[in-house]
Amino acid sequence: MDITTQLEFIKKGTAEIVPEAELFQKLEEAGRQKKALRIKLGVDPSSPHIHLGNAVVIRKLRDFQQLGHQVVFIVGDFTGRIGDPSGRAATRRQLSEEEVKTNMATYKEQVGRILDVEKTEFRCNSEWLGRLTPFEIVKICSFQTVARMLERDDFSIRFKESRPIGIHEFLYPLFQGYDSVAIRADVELGGTEQKFNLLLGRELQIYYGQKPQVAVTMPILVGIDGVKRMGKSLSNYVGITESPKEIFGKIMSIPDNIIVHYFELATEISSSDLEKIKTALSKGENPRNFKARLGKEIVSLYHGKAAAEKAELEFDRIFKEKGLPEKIEEYRIEAGKKIWLVRLLVETGLVKTNSDARRLIQQGAVEIDGEMISDIEKELSLKKPIVIKVGKRRFLKIVPK
Amino acid sequence: MDITTQLEFIKKGTAEIVPEAELFQKLEEAGRQKKALRIKLGVDPSSPHIHLGNAVVIRKLRDFQQLGHQVVFIVGDFTGRIGDPSGRAATRRQLSEEEVKTNMATYKEQVGRILDVEKTEFRCNSEWLGRLTPFEIVKICSFQTVARMLERDDFSIRFKESRPIGIHEFLYPLFQGYDSVAIRADVELGGTEQKFNLLLGRELQIYYGQKPQVAVTMPILVGIDGVKRMGKSLSNYVGITESPKEIFGKIMSIPDNIIVHYFELATEISSSDLEKIKTALSKGENPRNFKARLGKEIVSLYHGKAAAEKAELEFDRIFKEKGLPEKIEEYRIEAGKKIWLVRLLVETGLVKTNSDARRLIQQGAVEIDGEMISDIEKELSLKKPIVIKVGKRRFLKIVPK
Questions:
Q1: Burial of B334 (0-12, 13-18, 19+ CB in 10 A)
Q2: Dist. CA A11–CA B284, nearest whole Å
């Protein structure tokens, strides 16, 4: 492949390459000198489950790997300890060496579904960060200003809203940047929210007299709720090691407006196929068919084609058995808020009065997710969507938000 | 001495004691348990010359020492490396161990003129700060927020004015605070500008499960220019190991409006004597007499009474020999700016025209600090005041600002 074709191959699906001209140069130089570029990805070891959102970035790593470059997978066992910003009392628990090893093994196993692990360099950043002298840390900190750090979107918002930012949180991006220095990265990958950190790594490399890395950012995959970014803590994710059945089912539950987004970021279909799907959807073809295809494409990636076919069949069978219609209207309620079932039935218009609701419950005519409810005092507090069935034909999906 | 008397003794001359009630408790407890309180002072080793401004704080340490408490003198060889905030390119040079030892010896020698060094504990903070693990540093940083740190006056001003603050500068007060943890300080002394740092040390001790120190701040001594605080880098200072002649001469040069301020902070005169001086000055007595007394008081403190008497006599003799009047008018010019002597003579009104000035110079009628000037092209660039004499009676003191 010539350099332009390589660059096109890498560019596909990325959000941004900063600076693109430098990547071209690096690819060219690597080709000329027959040496591999070092492609960095850092991950937080506290949640070792890889989901489709993570996979967007890891699949891009694989593209580099396929071009013969050296992927360096950094498990942030040190930076992971600094942890997330929310509230200084909530200092994250230190991971033991044992736990890090276990998570590392889990990672390798999962990443192996995407990357060639034999050709991948796995590193823990405690290896170099844990050995920094206090003076070296001072030196790293002296390289960046407070004002510049506060330009980062999340910091700037929190600062403006007077929400606390621990000083140690400023160390996080600096340490992440130092990772690039330690492994002499040529390219670092991340989601678009990582742009600031990736560019900071670039600057830190210059500060340490190295050639700066190129930042390659990937778009953020939205969660299956269609609202927030896919994240482990948000339970709106699809893990790549979940069973074919689970993956397929979750994909069938996504809102129609993110079908194309998922085809783009979570599958390997060609651009022309993608265009055909867009056209068909805009012409009003039933989205359900495309969700089914999407589900199969994604299951195929991590479990193979046969498993994907099977998952679809099984899904259809269960769906029919439960007697659910293909399209159910949705009603949104506040997540986690307690609500009396009787009241909910009236509020949603499924029944007209409280006494109607009580009578129907007592007659066994109200089901939640296929299960008959007989307690007229029943209260709900929803974290995930449920389907309520009243009588034989009235269905409503209740979605917490 | 009972506790109330002790407290009064300590309070004398201080700016603030935070919280005073806790100091009372600590003094009481120390008395009851017959144990000494640990009184901390941290100093920057980069300028080992102790001046009258530093002495204000060190003399207060001596008060504690006289009450039987343990003075802990911390040389900030580690924090000194972090250095002053101005500009990240200007990272301060690391001090070698050799230099630290030399400075430490110099310190001891100077401090010995105020404190009983045999009873003083001298420590270098690299002893504990240099051994901090990266994770411990993260922990220390996690204890304070960015917003809180930006409340510190100097940071807040620089932040508002968009002047850069290096992230390492946030480490400085945290490390200084950690010094209090390391030596288990009961009291920390400092100038009023140190209040934020002293209170931060207090909070950090609580964070580490220790009893918090009491912050004792001392007023800032203004420099002999009467404008800025006394500081080594500002050359407006009087070093306590300077010769009696130098000290006396510098004191004689201070502006009248800081005479009382110096009596209050730089001498040991009683409150009643101070009142008498204030009254006399307000009644119009010649300030020169009080400056001479001030000079003698200060020289006595560091060189003894005899040296003080001698310094005064010598000063008077030189003054008379030079034939300078007791009172010379002052004229201010920009410090360091080049100015042609001829132009200066005209500008100040000492002569009327450039040609007058040239003629007088050629006739040998112009002197600077007692030295005849004959070069009509002479240019000046002033860093310290000079006295220009034109003819026999015209004197003018030129003061750079």
A1: exposed
A2: 84
Interface probe for B, chosen from A131, A137, A150, A167 (most Cβ of B below 10 Å), is A167
Nearest to A81 among B129, B135, B174 (CB): B135
From the CA of A136, how many Å to the nearest CA of chain B?
10
A chain contacts of residue B144, beta-carbon cutoff 8 Å:
166-167
Report the residue of A91, A168, A175, A178 to disrupt the B interface, i.e. the one with the largest count of B CBs within 10 Å. Answer: A168
Element (H, E) at B71: strand B70-75
d(CA A71, CA A117): 9
pLDDT digits (tens, 9 = 90+) for B289-330: 999 999 999 999 999 999 999 999 988 887 776 666 666 788
Contact B316, B285 (CB under 8 A): no
Report phi then psi at A396, rounded to 5: -150, 135
Reading the block at residue B190, the tokens are: 């400092």
B224: exposed, middle or buried (Cβ count in 10 Å: 0-12, 13-18, 19+): buried
Nearest CA-CA distance, residue A84 and chain B, Å:
11
Side chain identity at residue B50, one-letter code: I
A residues 7-46 closer than 8 Å to B (CB): none
- Interchain contact B255–A (C-beta under 8 A): no
Chain B residue with Cα closest to A149: B167
Q: What is the ipTM of this complex?
A: 0.72
Predicted confidence (pLDDT) per residue in B221-267, tens digit: 999 989 888 987 667 889 999 999 989 999 998 999 999 999 999 99
Examine the pLDDT at B53 and tell me if it is beyond 90: yes
Separation between Cα atoms, residue B220 and residue B216, nearest integer Å: 13
CA gap B13, B55 in Å, rounded: 13
Does the distance separating the beta carbons of A137 and B134 come in below 8 Å?
yes
CB-based contact A166:A145 (threshold 8 Å): no
Place of tokens 């997978």: A73
pLDDT in tens, B123-181: 999 999 999 999 899 989 988 999 999 988 888 888 998 888 889 889 989 999 999 99
Take residue B145 and report the two structure tokens written for it.
Answer: 């927020």
User: How many CB contacts within 8 angstroms connect chain A with chain B?
Assistant: 114
Say yes or no for a CB contact (<8 Å) between B141 and A78: no
In single-letter form, the type of residue at position A149 comes to M
